[in-house]
Amino acid sequence: MRVLRLRWHQHLLLAAAVGALAGWISHTKVFWQQDESAYDQLVGNWNYEADPSLLIVAIDDHSLQQLGQWPWPRGTHARLLDRLQQAGAEHVALDLLFIEPDRKDRDQDALLADAIKRSGNVLLPVLAVAPSDEAVPEELMPVPVISAAAAQLAHTDIEIEGDGIARGLYLKAGIGSAYWPALGMALAGRIDPVPGLPSPQDSTLTPYQWHRDNYVRLRYAGPPGTFPQVSYSDVLEGRIAPGLLHGRRVIVGMTASGVAPRLLTPTSHERWMSGSEYQANVASMLLAHHAILPLMPLAQIFFVALLVMLCAMATTSSLPPWLVGAVAIPAPLLLSFILLRGFNLWFAPVAAVVSIIVLLLAWGLWRIRYWRRQANRDPLTGLANRMRFEETLQLETDAARRSGRPLSLLLVDVDHFKSYNDTYGHYVGDRVLRQVANTIDDLARRPRDLAARFGGDEFAVILPDTPQAGAVQLIESLLARTRQQGITVDKGRLAQVSLTIGVYTVVPAAQDTPASLFEAADAALYRAKEAGRDTYDADPSPR
Q1: How far is 517 from 521, CA to CA, in rounded Å?
Q2: Is residue 543 one of the residues assigned to a domain?
């Protein structure tokens, strides 16, 4: 067997193919859970100082105890808004749904609408809900009288990943087109340009479906409890100093246990975050310009493919394997860390890491297999060496003894080989040996046949399950082909090459050993040499 050697351009094509496969794996998000775990590790403790203008007015357990069972009359919210307006709050996001008129007291809607108008800075939420999985979603908006009084409407669509963690959001969304800003973005004020990845164009979407755009990863200011929080009832009853409310961006929302929505985030550390604090994080992130953008799909594929290609090319260099692995395996993680911490870009590294590890393992196994083969190969001719020959002869002798099938052993000698070296030089002598080896290898082509270089100009062929007639047929083909080939020497002259062969065929008995088989074949070779060379001799009475 010959060793496969690739040229540089073949290596490049192979590396490109491996890189393209890794890029495709990354694009299909096979390792999305592992990527998200890596993301959580990188951002989980990456805190920053929260924007000091943000304040949460919490409908907490204390407020429910003070003000009674939920829901409260809308006039109560109107009184709260008046308190905030008098204290000089800059913006108020009233993160509560008023999608139906007050059925008990219609004046309550008017009271709340008037308070919203007086404030002039109140944001109200819009939520998209589908009655069923197959139904067209509907926008749940405040009742018209309240909606008309609001300074702005904003969506509260929170993106929850498949593992239940809120890592990102769409800054714009809406039915038919993405026209509503996220509540946290509206609270932050004018953001220009709006960051985020554009959603891919999907021809299956209809004007009646919920469209989302400008996706970003949310960088949290810290774990739950990072933002200052005051109780709704305390603000309502005037127990909070107006100076604490002045100039604030206020989020009024539910935090009471058992009632408020609960979110897990990369910073939660098994603690829940309220929807109000989530919106505060959105506003703080945008005010501080800390939005994290995932790489565009083509850029993600490019970086994964490039890293894997470079690793594949490094395997063909003279670098030691441990050094290639020590650099290549952590490289995607390092690139992800640099892009995230230095440029607020998220590169998902796991597909590249896994592809590199698999590539290095395959390379290592190939190297082990290659060196094992090389340890049993003759470096000049590529045939099996003497050690491999002796191991195989022992195995085939035992197998033939068990099966009762004949085993043939050929010993081949290049006639007058020393004269090639003396007359034409060792280079021509090596060419003769390689040519003879190739001819033998071509003829001994069955899976269990073994051709070996036994000595300087001596070869051996083991032919399992081969009677003497079959061995003789192969020998005659070998002699004829060698005579026809010759070898080209100085000035294009054709020098004759011939072989002398001894063959021994036997069905091994208990007393027959590899050594005895070899001695019998060697005796046949000696008789053939005495007969004039360029011929063969077979044992006259094979058993």
Answers
A1: 6
A2: no
Q: What is the DSSP string of 286-318?
A: HHTT--BEEPPHHHHHHHHHHHHHHHHHHTTSS
Range of the domain at 515: 386-538
Beta bridge partners of 56: 229, 251
Q: Are residues 250 and 332 in the same domain?
A: no
Pair (220, 337) in one structural domain: no
**Total domains present in the chain:** 3
What gap in Å lies between CA 433 and CA 245, rounded to an integer?
96
SS3 388: helix
Picking from 325, 461, 493, the residue whose alpha carbon sits closest to that of residue 381 is 461
In a domain? residue 249:
yes
Q: Which two tokens stand for residue 445?
A: 């082509």
Residues 59 and 124 in one domain: yes
- Phi, psi at 41, each rounded to 5°: -65, -35
Angle made by CA atoms 6, 10, 15, in degrees to the nearest 5 = 110
| CATH code where residue 433 lies | 3.30.70.270
Task: Kindly report the pTM of this predicted structure.
Answer: 0.72
Cβ–Cβ under 8 Å, residues 479 and 501: yes
Position 380 in a domain: no
Q: Are 342 and 258 found together in one domain?
A: no
Q: Which residues pair with 503 in a beta bridge?
A: 410, 538
Angle (nearest 5°) at CA 319 between 366 and 22: 60
Q: pLDDT tens digits, the chain, 543 residues: what are they?
A: 343 445 667 778 888 999 999 999 999 999 999 999 999 999 999 999 999 999 999 999 999 999 998 899 999 999 999 999 999 999 999 999 999 998 888 889 999 999 999 999 999 999 887 655 566 778 889 999 999 999 999 999 998 998 999 999 999 999 888 899 999 999 999 888 899 888 776 555 567 788 899 999 999 999 999 999 999 999 999 999 999 999 999 999 999 988 878 899 999 877 899 999 999 999 999 999 999 999 999 999 999 999 999 999 888 887 888 888 899 999 999 999 999 999 999 999 999 999 999 999 988 887 777 676 666 788 888 898 888 899 999 999 999 999 999 999 999 999 988 888 888 888 888 888 999 999 999 998 899 999 999 888 899 999 999 999 999 999 999 999 998 887 877 666 777 889 999 999 999 998 899 999 999 999 999 999 998 888 999 866 555
